[in-house]
User: What shape does this take?
Amino acid sequence: MAELRSRGYAGDLTLVGSEPDSPYDRPSLSKQVLLTDADPTPLDPLWLAHVDVRAGQTVTAVRPGSVETTGGELPWEALVLALGASPRRLSGSDGGAHVLRTAADARQLRAALVPGAHVVVVGAGWIGAEVATAAAHRGCTVTVLEAGVAPLVTALGPAVGARTAGWYAEAGVTLRTGAAVSTVDSRGVGLAGEGRVDADVVVEAVGVRPRLDWLDGSGVDLDPVSGGILVDEAGRSSLEGVLAVGDCAARWSPRRNRRIRTEHWDDALRAPTVVAGTLLGKTGVYDPIPYVWSEQFGRHVQWVGWRSEDVPVVWRGDPTKPTGWGAAWLDAEGRLAGYLAVDRPRDIGQARRVIDGGAVVDPAVIADPDRPLRDA
Assistant: This one.
């Protein structure tokens, strides 16, 4: 909506959202909101002043030319589905543990993170690590249970994930890998064949997924693999006039020649540029290089690109030094495909440009932390 207004669109805009809060910046929920007493950062109120915001209402059905909501039926000439995703729950969960997705979730969890409380976090991915960081910062006793062999194993593979395991011990956090969880409730978790871990606070941080079964019969097709809404590179769905963007969209990537669904802030920031253009008759292609950032245990972690192997081809820098370190993945032709930077913010912009350029790189240059990545 902000992008449409910035391009001069002066027509009616209606925003329907199930949360009672006005639109806000979601990445701060697992960072500043949990670490401090800050509220989520609201989005620019200037463009919201010219939007019919219907907070606390949920869309329950989509039909050609109209949507049904808990506040009544609304007509549309164009419809954008920016539905996000919902936290996953483990199969053995009774739904009593905390999750983190909304401002309300963050406020409830923050109130529970009191000094001395024993907090169990299920999952050591991006969000699990950030929740553990905040809980330790607030004086809680923290245990993190990860089913994989290392933190961030799904995102970055075991070799890189293992390099982050020491961060937990430094922060006084107990990390247990290979800890498969069988049951979850508000007072603890049951481990597969290994007893139970009791807690004052339990947080499930095992990823998110779109919840779109209510779209059955609407004419909006879903991707059977990712569960997202099938869209082309311009954001158009299978139903004429309906577009989808963000976590709920499974978009076609010409760059990768396959369908991709991403769940990161950078995607929500950039994709609306193309979707707004499509709405205004200026169809473009949205096919970026994925980017994610995280703040964990006093470290700034940034990831750009893709990886196809568990082990990076090139290590950059020394993890024990304050100058930070990095890890690079090359493709079969010797081009940079993915790059992780830990406390090396200058690397990440250069890595993105090198990946985008598609040139074969010199691994020796990448391995030298004193040389700019662009020199590769």
In short: The radius of gyration is 22 Å.
